[in-house]
């Protein structure tokens, strides 16, 4: 039996080191496909459209635009950091180099925690639509209710997580091949849905035909700042995932350029998809709280499960298949980020050395991939047992986690490049202004959402001891990270003393 190896920490002239991953296995198109897959547009839209409409009503397009702006600004900062320090640890590595090991460790933990949360959520959605697909295939509606049988639901979810883990364990080439077909299929079905919805509006057969108005794109028309912040937090969730293109930087062709370009292309493509589908949904269903209305609380768990039949007729099963394939594909591709962050943290001794193991056969972070799967499975079992509304609450909590670690990373870009920020227009815009604005916006959203989510009525209304479950999930996971960080300090103080990965900054050379 071959023992998986732990790469030695031998640093390059940038203070970073290779970890044994398979270099050059992903090009620009492959990275964009994996980025889109990780975002999972079919899954994120069906899960987030309803909750976002409940917060901001017809101003959904405006909130999407506002959510897109910080994502684009942060993506520019990420691109600059990747150009200077291509490392699979991304947020962890970059924040450590800019701010030191303590804040760097928390940046890495934020990414890991967010992806663990969404992995469990993706598996849950995949299972829901798996049983819905069976009900549609066999014309037996009772089969869809099997997802409510808790033991069966948990067992099926664990099977989905294990399958996605196995594919990810086999490395980037297997991951890439798996994604091409599934991503193409879900985009085709989303396009079909949008065209069919607009056709119903034009033909007068829509449920609540609503004319598109310029006011829909006005973020200042949202009723309150709390509703605005909640809406932005949810919209940020639906853009999240593009940074997976950067965690693959040690495995891409031209690692200094390709990941950053892939991230920018991914964010723009996703924005176009979301805008078209959201406009089609609002135009067809309106925002009413009854029937097929997008504001109906009964529809908010999965808006497409409700609208696919009325919009697409006998082809509604394609939407079930698209969401199933979207969540399954994203479940698999999402393993890329936490596995490579855990790998990097183990490699640089911020976590136990075992996390730095590379599979000799597949050149993938084998131990870290399995660890991420176990954590996601455990998180799902706990949250599903605590609350039947775990889907809604984890989505909202996820928005908080994303704001947290994106914000830290964006400000790390500003600080790391501070010596050259005011030398040239491009440096000022891409290395200072864009990441500064993006980081500040996201951190403001984080603190505002954290404060609001303390209210037991926030999100699904579930609470523990009078505190909203969204707050407990979001801030509780961050506090858990602090506890683990101090535990790791006791076990591996060399990282926290800066002996393995040192703090530094870019030196300006005119």
TrEMBL record:
<feature type="transmembrane region" description="Helical">
    <location>
        <begin position="220"/>
        <end position="242"/>
    </location>
</feature>
<protein>
    <submittedName>
        <fullName>APC family permease</fullName>
    </submittedName>
</protein>
<dbReference type="GO" id="GO:0055085">
    <property type="term" value="P:transmembrane transport"/>
</dbReference>
<dbReference type="InterPro" id="IPR050367">
    <property type="entry name" value="APC_superfamily"/>
</dbReference>
<feature type="transmembrane region" description="Helical">
    <location>
        <begin position="395"/>
        <end position="417"/>
    </location>
</feature>
<keyword id="KW-1133">Transmembrane helix</keyword>
<feature type="transmembrane region" description="Helical">
    <location>
        <begin position="262"/>
        <end position="282"/>
    </location>
</feature>
<feature type="transmembrane region" description="Helical">
    <location>
        <begin position="467"/>
        <end position="489"/>
    </location>
</feature>
<feature type="domain" description="Amino acid permease/ SLC12A">
    <location>
        <begin position="31"/>
        <end position="451"/>
    </location>
</feature>
<feature type="transmembrane region" description="Helical">
    <location>
        <begin position="150"/>
        <end position="169"/>
    </location>
</feature>
<feature type="transmembrane region" description="Helical">
    <location>
        <begin position="181"/>
        <end position="200"/>
    </location>
</feature>
<dbReference type="InterPro" id="IPR004841">
    <property type="entry name" value="AA-permease/SLC12A_dom"/>
</dbReference>
<feature type="transmembrane region" description="Helical">
    <location>
        <begin position="21"/>
        <end position="44"/>
    </location>
</feature>
<dbReference type="Pfam" id="PF00324">
    <property type="entry name" value="AA_permease"/>
</dbReference>
<dbReference type="GO" id="GO:0016020">
    <property type="term" value="C:membrane"/>
</dbReference>
<keyword id="KW-0472">Membrane</keyword>
<feature type="transmembrane region" description="Helical">
    <location>
        <begin position="429"/>
        <end position="447"/>
    </location>
</feature>
<keyword id="KW-0812">Transmembrane</keyword>
<feature type="transmembrane region" description="Helical">
    <location>
        <begin position="366"/>
        <end position="383"/>
    </location>
</feature>
<feature type="transmembrane region" description="Helical">
    <location>
        <begin position="56"/>
        <end position="78"/>
    </location>
</feature>
<feature type="transmembrane region" description="Helical">
    <location>
        <begin position="111"/>
        <end position="138"/>
    </location>
</feature>
<feature type="transmembrane region" description="Helical">
    <location>
        <begin position="302"/>
        <end position="324"/>
    </location>
</feature>
